[in-house]
């Protein structure tokens, strides 16, 4: 008789443990669902766990690729800053892309603009003492006929490196590169 009670309680214990495990897995799946952008818009009941995990893996791989791209851009910006500091030249001019760069008396600041595939890449390097509102930089680029696609800044030692990627709003009209460069130069001169 004792044996039957023990077997019954063991079954109940296993059922409770299994129920708790399933509840915990469901909570974790909801949490994963809330973190992956492609899964947020889909109702949870319509997503199988297998497809949820597949989409999560794809999203994580996408983020990993973006990290590698950003590391490459950071290394490129560091190289530009280091080259500028070594050579007292304020920016690189690449032969295969048209670019405008600041080479005059702006020793502490640099503006480099490159036209790339119907778009624009802006690199602005200033010292920490110079107070430049990033929103003004974005507004200057927008006023020049470009729509900012990606923007960011980082600090490196006593320098602040602003990077912008923009595309032409109207392709056939293009972007006013010279005007953007002049206005950015004026902004730097005002902040100096």
Summary, kept brief:
By secondary structure, the protein is of the alpha+beta class. The protein is 53% helix and 21% strand. Strand 2 and strand 3 form a beta hairpin.
Task: Explain how this protein is built.
The protein has helices at 2-35, 37-40, 49-87, 134-143, 177-191; strands at 99-101, 110-116, 119-127, 146-156, 159-168. With 192 residues, the chain is an alpha+beta fold. The protein has 2 domains: 2-68; 93-191, Alpha-Beta Plaits (2-Layer Sandwich), CATH 3.30.70. Strands 1-2-3-5-4 form a 5-stranded antiparallel sheet, with helices on both faces. Helix 4 runs antiparallel to helix 5 (177-191). The termini are far apart.
Strand content: 15-25%
N-end to C-end Cα span:
92 Å
Per CATH, the architecture of the largest domain is: 2-Layer Sandwich
Shape: elongated
Helix content: 40-55%
Spell out the helices and strands N to C. Answer: HHHEEEHEEH
Organism: Tagetes erecta
Subcellular location: Nucleus
GO molecular function, one term: protein dimerization activity
Keywords: Coiled coil, Nucleus, Transcription, Transcription regulation
List keywords for this structure.
21% strand, elongated, alpha+beta, 192 residues, 53% helix, 2 domains, HLH_DNA-bd_sf, protein dimerization activity, Alpha-Beta Plaits
Topology:
Blueprint: H1 2-35, H2 37-40, H3 49-87, E1 99-101, E2 110-116, E3 119-127, H4 134-143, E4 146-156, E5 159-168, H5 177-191
Antiparallel strand pairs: 1-2, 2-3, 3-5, 4-5
Helix pairs in contact: 4-5
């Amino acid at each position: 008789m004792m044996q039957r009670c023990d077997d019954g309680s063991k079954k109940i214990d296993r059922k409770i443990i299994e129920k708790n495990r399933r509840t915990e897995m469901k909570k974790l799946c909801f949490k994963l669902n809330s973190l992956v952008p492609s899964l947020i818009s889909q109702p949870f009941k319509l997503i199988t766990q297998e497809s949820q995990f597949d989409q999560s893996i794809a999203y994580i791989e996408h983020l990993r690729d973006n990290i590698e791209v950003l590391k490459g851009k950071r290394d490129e910006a560091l190289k530009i800053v280091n080259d500028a500091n070594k050579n007292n030249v304020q920016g690189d001019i690449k032969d295969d892309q048209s670019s405008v760069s600041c080479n005059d008396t702006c020793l502490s600041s640099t503006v480099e603009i490159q036209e790339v595939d119907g778009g624009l890449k802006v690199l602005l390097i200033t010292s920490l003492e110079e107070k430049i509102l990033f929103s003004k930089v974005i507004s200057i680029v927008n006023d020049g006929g470009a729509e900012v696609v990606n923007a960011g800044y980082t600090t490196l030692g006593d320098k602040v490196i602003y990077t912008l990627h923009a595309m032409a709003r109207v392709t056939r009209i293009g972007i006013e590169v010279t005007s953007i460069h002049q206005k950015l130069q004026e902004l730097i001169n005002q902040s100096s």
